[in-house]
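Appendix B, Record 12. Input sequence as logged:
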Amino acid sequence: MRHFQFHKDIKISLLIYNRKEAGAKEKAEKFGIPSKYVPKAVFEDDSIAVVDILMKAGIDYILLAGFLLLIPPSIVEAYPDRILNIHPALLPEFGGKGMHGTFVHQAVKNSGANRTGISIHIVDLEYDKGKILFQSACPVWETDSESDIAARVLVLEHLHYSLVAEQYIISKKEKKV
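Logged structural output:
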């Protein structure tokens, strides 16, 4: 939100969240961005309603951050190659259903991997299978805890997601997110 706050071509127009306690709602309020709570059941049972919300708001692109549900086909079809996600590992490793947050970092640690990172990818009909647009790696040390790994990955997320999304959107010549 901060990255795009004064952007001349890209505007964050709406935040949709599906957990009432989502911290992103307060952040959106600080930036004057409208937000809408949409329960998980609506995504699962009536995703056309979500498409309608997005269309009425004039949304051209969707940027996911901390969203754990599989995006329903109706939304993917309405926004082909226009939904981006950030994953806290180097895909295709440590991706798929249930692989988010602490679970990813725990799996990385348990695997003995000596590196991890982030993957920014296009969302398709499967968890973490869409075309990878960007990856950045960081080391995993034998002495690292899951929280050490998570902290290192979070730095990469904050450093790269907005910039990669901006470059992608501008390259497609669209204007709203």
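Residues 146-172 form the longest helix (27 residues).
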